[in-house]
Amino acid sequence: MIETTGPLVLILVPMLTGVLAYVLRRWRSVPPILGASVTLLLGLILVLLPSGQSFEIAGQEIALEQSVDVLGRALVLQPSDRPAMGYLFFTAAALFLAAWRFDRGGLFVPMGLGMLGLLCGVLVVHPLIYAVLFFQIAVVLSVFPLYAEEDTPVRGGLRYLTFYILALPGLMISHWLLDLYVYSPDQVSLLETATILIGFSFVLMLGLVPFHAWVPAIGSDGAPLMSAFLYTAMTGGVWFLLFEYLRAYPWLAEHGEWQSLLTVLGVATAVVGGLLGAVRRSPGTLIGYIVMVDTGLSVVALGDASQRSVGAIVLLLFARTVGAVLMTAGLEGLRSKRDASAELPDGVGWKAPWSTAAVLIGGLSLVGLPPTVGFAARWALLTTVARSNPIIGLVLLMASIAPVVGLIQWVVKLLRRPRQLPGVELEEAVPPIPSVREPVADVAVLLVFVAATFLLGVFPQWIAAAADDLARYMALF
To answer: Is 183 helix (H, G, I), strand (E, B) or coil?
Structure first.
């Protein structure tokens, strides 16, 4: 019999809570509150419980650091896994809190909890080949809440699923090649092939140019909160899995073209995301392009191969969560003011001013403008890059600012009064703007995230310390 101790608890509790949330989904408010409470509690336990100390629940003693064998596979919670899991749990808690007021599909919280349990499994299961399988199962689950609403295009989800499935064979085959290399160390070609396959797989999963088509697409036609989950928790899972690979196989970073290749891919991804973000007025697509800029910056910083660069990457990931949750919650608030099949009409921002403000502030944080939390994270990463190459740092700075143009254009559309055409009554010229007031609870939730955006922007050391701890535990380079 499997003992419910060790890191197995961190996998089973979210998944079992997800099953309960699915059963209780007819009561709209119960699953989000339940999911947010459980994930917040687990995150606090990981962050506040001293290493090596156990705790007791219902007469069962839980020791998180105790290794557990499940079907011959080891589940081990290492020091670096605690802050990484803490990030996943706190991110999920924030998204579930937003779902309490802004989730219309009903599947986001149950599926999100199931995916969260699988992401925890990615961090603790050994060997890494099983972590890859856990991650792929989480990817498949994500498609259901992404398109829970009827009559929505599924182009983005299909692209997302396709690219991640294409990444699976490379990671699987690379493990087989590495096993062969153990018995034939003179066959250096096996090591080179494994390096190429692992690198190509992570290029697909991170959405680097030219394999970036799924990144803006899921923001364009997917459910906003689920898109935010993919851009934050799932993308964080990809980065943590990459860190695990770099720690398990240090020769990956010792390749002669490591820094040059990452610089080219990162700069290309950031520039493409910045330029396309500047000319896009769709808010979901805009979020995707801003995420591309973030990813490009992070990849360039990773090429620096230092603890400082890893800390900057993690800090940017932390900051992205706040902006993405705020912007997507505001977008859900705006979408509730129009018909399911209609576009947002001009001037709808005047009927939902708090949601409009949330989209604007969240977007400014994602872009990295002061005094939001995104500015502190972007600045830390840009200065890290500029230390080694000022020209590339300047190019990345311009790419970072470019999406502000697209954000401003879209906000102007929200606030633009419908124009009356000559000889046509105003009511006939444009669809009427729904006269719906924003509920007090919706505004309260948005204000919580607005306060967090500015508070963490003024005091970024609160999350910077956690990012530095995670980078120190990783000890990649």
So the answer is: helix
If you search the block for the tokens 């993919």, which residue do you land on? Answer: 230
Strand 55-57 and strand 68-70: pairing? unpaired
Handedness of CA 71, 72, 77, 80 (dihedral sign): negative
List, for residues 209-262, the tens digit of each pLDDT value.
999 999 999 988 888 899 999 999 999 999 999 998 888 888 887 776 777 888
Radius of gyration of the chain from its Cα atoms, rounded to whole angstroms: 22
Bin 389: left if φ > 0, else alpha if -120 < ψ < 50, else beta: beta
Measured CA to CA, the distance from residue 464 to residue 48 in angstroms comes to: 17
Is there a contact between 454 and 372 (Cβ–Cβ < 8 Å)?
yes
Beta-carbon neighbour count of residue 29 at 10 Å?
Answer: 12
- The whole-model pTM stands at 0.90
SS3 of residue 106 by DSSP: coil
Residues 357-404: pLDDT tens digits? 999 999 999 998 989 999 988 988 888 888 888 899 899 999 999 999
Largest CA distance in the chain: 83
Helices then strands, counting H and E runs in the chain, come out as 20, 5
Q: What is the DSSP letter of 337?
A: T
Cis, peptide link before residue 422, omega less than 30° from 0: no
Location of structure tokens 């998944």: 15
